[in-house]
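Q: Hi! First time doing this. I have a protein sequence and I read that you can turn it into a structure. Is that right? Here it is:
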Amino acid sequence: GVVEIGPGAFRDATWLKEIQFPDSLYYIGEEAFRASGLESVEFPATIAETAPYSFADCSGLTQAVFKSRDAKYEVNDDYSECVPTPLNIGQGSFQGCAALKDLVIGERKETWIGNAAFAGSKTTEIVLPWNCDFSAESFAGIDGEVTVWYPFANYWDDDDWHEDYYEDEEVSYTIHDEEIGDETEVVTQVHFIPYY
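A: Yes, that's right. Below is the predicted 3D structure, encoded as structure tokens:
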């Protein structure tokens, strides 16, 4: 099956309203669907990376769902257990998706979220999976305020107790509109709330 969609493959394809990705898909290239007409996307559990700006400026995109991948359902050809695919949501992957409100990121072995991945969107709440690598800049450029639910990581290390936590943070990001050559600074108030 298809494992990769190349850079710019469907850029400016405004006629493209929906797409069903195959379960074999692993990688989506830079600007692959930029400024396309997609209204919602559901990524298979095999997807490992959405490259920078892969879905940027999809003005009609309202929903993005990354399916979970559970290790207990993963087997190699010899039926031995293998680990679930990690996920990298690249910088600006959904930048400029002004209608994006519904965002679901399923559990993976590890998840990385690049800077300004959702800049310019209307997302108001994001629940992050366990083993997620992110910073406040990951949510920079979201229009207004966003609540980020993140796993509260508690662990022992050489008999010391560690608690990883984040605090509310204000971040700004300059969005460049290549269509009109305009730049807008968007200030985002990020509220971090831990869950257990």
